[in-house]
Amino acid sequence: PDVIIEAQFDDNDAEHGQDHLQDMLTGDIKKLSLDTGEKGKAAGVTGVHRTKQDDGPKVNDPRLLPDEFLQRTAKVVYILEKKHSRAATGFIKLLADRNSELFKRCAMFSPVDHRVPRVYVPLADCPPDFVSKPEAYSQTLFICRIVDWKEDSNFASGQLCKSLGQAGEIEPESEGILTEYGVDFSDFSPEVLECLPQNLPWVISPGELAKRRDLR
């Protein structure tokens, strides 16, 4: 009853727009229609017997179908609360279409976490020699924060916050994870440190040990 057509496209396709994708889908639909017609003619000529399931009336109006045969659809109308930090760790690269106006203004940020969309970032946020030597930054981790995502765009818009360092090293990878999840890993303030015991070395008093559960 329903035909679902799935199409895959890479970075180049998405950067060039969806016109060719729509043309491809339209061609597939026409092909399906022609195939259905030809199969019907062939069945009439060869005298193929119809099954009991085919004997029922054909319903072309979806409103006449029972609810269990319908696919529920919806759209997001408002974001109540942003649960994600909008920050992501990833890599930057040049756009594929060097002749486009976008190539002169933006670079592509690809997050390590594939649940986060790819992001257009201004070239002004990138290192000064990135355009001339993009391969030098192919293994450099960056932190990007999403600031906008327009309805008619395949990619979000964002800003590069900082360079973390080489991918695969523990320190930049850890900092990237903490930033993505919004964990504050900055140094403690003097007010907080003053709450700690000042006379060192400090030991737990016998009275505290008597009323606490020892998990050491």
TrEMBL record:
<dbReference type="GO" id="GO:0046872">
    <property type="term" value="F:metal ion binding"/>
</dbReference>
<feature type="compositionally biased region" description="Basic and acidic residues">
    <location>
        <begin position="51"/>
        <end position="61"/>
    </location>
</feature>
<keyword id="KW-0269">Exonuclease</keyword>
<keyword id="KW-0540">Nuclease</keyword>
<keyword id="KW-0378">Hydrolase</keyword>
<keyword id="KW-0694">RNA-binding</keyword>
<dbReference type="InterPro" id="IPR041505">
    <property type="entry name" value="Dis3_CSD2"/>
</dbReference>
<dbReference type="GO" id="GO:0008266">
    <property type="term" value="F:poly(U) RNA binding"/>
</dbReference>
<dbReference type="GO" id="GO:0000175">
    <property type="term" value="F:3'-5'-RNA exonuclease activity"/>
</dbReference>
<dbReference type="GO" id="GO:0010587">
    <property type="term" value="P:miRNA catabolic process"/>
</dbReference>
<dbReference type="InterPro" id="IPR012340">
    <property type="entry name" value="NA-bd_OB-fold"/>
</dbReference>
<keyword id="KW-0963">Cytoplasm</keyword>
<dbReference type="GO" id="GO:0000932">
    <property type="term" value="C:P-body"/>
</dbReference>
<feature type="domain" description="CSD2">
    <location>
        <begin position="107"/>
        <end position="182"/>
    </location>
</feature>
<dbReference type="Pfam" id="PF17849">
    <property type="entry name" value="OB_Dis3"/>
</dbReference>
<feature type="region of interest" description="Disordered">
    <location>
        <begin position="41"/>
        <end position="61"/>
    </location>
</feature>
<keyword id="KW-0460">Magnesium</keyword>
<dbReference type="InterPro" id="IPR050180">
    <property type="entry name" value="RNR_Ribonuclease"/>
</dbReference>
<protein>
    <submittedName>
        <fullName>DI3L2 exonuclease</fullName>
    </submittedName>
</protein>
<dbReference type="GO" id="GO:0006402">
    <property type="term" value="P:mRNA catabolic process"/>
</dbReference>
<keyword id="KW-0479">Metal-binding</keyword>
